[in-house]
Recover the amino acids of this structure.
């Protein structure tokens, strides 16, 4: 194999790795975007004095799917934690969903 062929193979392999990284980043960003939309709507419910129990379940499910697919997002984890805290407060006051 010539030096040019070896360099071409290395370049193609590097491009494949970069492409995979970009796809992974796009998927993680998609999860974060959807989570942000759900979290924002849940905040509107809570500010209005209503629980957001279903939103909590959805965010936890998104976080679980991300983990199963090998992704981890501090943003999604924070959305889950904040929403759980607010919903736990509603539960402690006896508010049913």
């Amino acid at each position: 194999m010539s030096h040019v062929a070896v360099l071409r193979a290395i370049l193609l392999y590097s491009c494949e790795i970069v492409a995979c990284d970009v796809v992974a980043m796009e998927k993680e960003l998609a999860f974060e975007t959807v989570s942000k939309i759900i979290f924002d709507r849940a905040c509107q419910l809570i500010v209005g004095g209503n629980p957001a129990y279903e939103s909590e379940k959805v965010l936890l499910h998104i976080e679980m799917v991300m983990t199963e697919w090998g992704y981890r997002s501090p943003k999604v984890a924070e959305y889950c934690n904040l929403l759980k805290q607010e919903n736990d407060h509603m539960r402690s006051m006896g508010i049913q969903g």
Q: What stands out?
A: The chain is about 80% helix and 0% strand. Residues 69 and 90 are 32 Å apart (CA to CA). The first helix runs from residue 3 to 47.
